[in-house]
């Protein structure tokens, strides 16, 4: 079964992940079982049923609907949203989660993870040197496209030499239950116009869950790289959010995409960690001719949604 999205923006606004009733052939069935088994081995939660009745999801739907009415999100733009509460161990928002969308730079932590899977397989042959670490930092913290291509090439060199598709193969070989809608088919062009690599909000959510619970190799290092301060859209300049909140995230930006996925680590009044995931994706059907204005307005729309989520979590967990 898979989630589908209507061409009408009303379905996007009302966040209906409808279930297809069409039959699944044997190959699809086997793939589904394999993905589910891999997810169970990683300990990744499979059910998001609670999200449909979440008060937060209803609030978020109303906010996005208002943003559409104001023209902040246009009719030719589709969105996906996901929020998982680690403390309550439940999905609070699941909106168009299983639809593959352009990944842009949000694919870069996946590339890092593919490197660490390969290093685990090739013990003693592939090493995490200081030079590789610097390349990783440029890839994730500074969103360097050339650095991303370097890591992709390294992964491919040890996995058949078939280019970016080797990155996807490594991820799905080790964690097919996490990277279910992930498609990595191109290096980042010199222009930075990368539109063909895709992933779903659900993939990001499962990845972040596994990352937080150390279910993949070298999770601590990936978290460290993702926690280095950057110009994120889910904590920085978000109204009402404290400046000392820690975030592990990666943004994605093209003339057709505004995205951010990450773990927001808050504390309650007793100093206990109260982390949650936030994934937001706004995808445009065609390239905008006014990139700076477009990406700024969509980034601010995402900040407004992130602020709504934070205020909800603050009330639920008595955050400081």
UniProtKB/TrEMBL annotation:
GO terms for molecular function: beta-lactamase activity. GO terms for biological process: beta-lactam antibiotic catabolic process; response to antibiotic. Coiled coil: none annotated. Keywords: Hydrolase, Signal. NCBIfam families: TAT_signal_seq (TIGR01409). This is beta-lactamase. Residues 131-269 form the Beta-lactamase class A catalytic domain. It catalyses: a beta-lactam + H2O = a substituted beta-amino acid. Its EC number is 3.5.2.6. Transmembrane segments: none annotated. SUPFAM superfamilies: beta-lactamase/transpeptidase-like. Belongs to the class-A beta-lactamase family.
């Amino acid at each position: 079964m898979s989630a589908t999205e209507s061409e009408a923006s009303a379905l996007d606004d009302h966040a209906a992940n409808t279930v297809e009733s069409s039959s699944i052939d044997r190959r699809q069935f086997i793939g589904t079982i394999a993905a589910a088994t891999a997810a169970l081995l990683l300990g990744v939660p499979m059910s998001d049923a609670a999200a449909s009745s979440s008060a937060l999801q209803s609030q978020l739907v109303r906010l996005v609907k208002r943003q559409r009415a104001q023209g902040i999100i246009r009719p030719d733009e589709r969105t996906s949203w996901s929020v998982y509460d680690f403390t309550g161990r439940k999905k609070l928002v699941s909106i168009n989660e299983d639809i593959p969308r352009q990944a842009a730079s949000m694919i870069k932590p996946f590339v890092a993870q593919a490197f660490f899977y390969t290093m685990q397989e090739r013990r003693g042959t592939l090493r995490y040197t200081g030079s590789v670490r610097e390349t990783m930092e440029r890839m994730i913290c500074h969103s360097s496209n050339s650095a991303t291509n370097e890591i992709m090439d390294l992964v491919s060199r040890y996995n058949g030499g078939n280019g970016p598709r080797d990155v996807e193969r490594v991820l799905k070989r080790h964690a097919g239950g996490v990277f279910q809608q992930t498609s990595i088919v191109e290096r980042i062009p010199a222009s930075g116009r990368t539109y063909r690599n895709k992933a779903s909000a659900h993939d990001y959510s499962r990845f972040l869950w596994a990352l937080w619970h150390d279910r993949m190799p070298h999770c601590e290092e990936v978290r460290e790289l993702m926690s280095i301060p950057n110009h994120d859209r889910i904590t920085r300049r978000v109204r009402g959010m404290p400046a000392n909140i820690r975030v592990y995230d990666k943004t994605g930006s093209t003339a057709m995409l505004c995205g951010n996925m990450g773990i927001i680590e808050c504390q309650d009044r007793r100093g206990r960690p109260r982390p949650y995931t936030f994934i937001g994706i706004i995808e445009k059907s065609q390239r905008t001719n006014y990139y700076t204005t477009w990406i700024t307005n969509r980034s601010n729309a995402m900040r407004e949604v992130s602020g709504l989520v934070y205020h909800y979590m603050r009330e639920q967990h008595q955050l400081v």
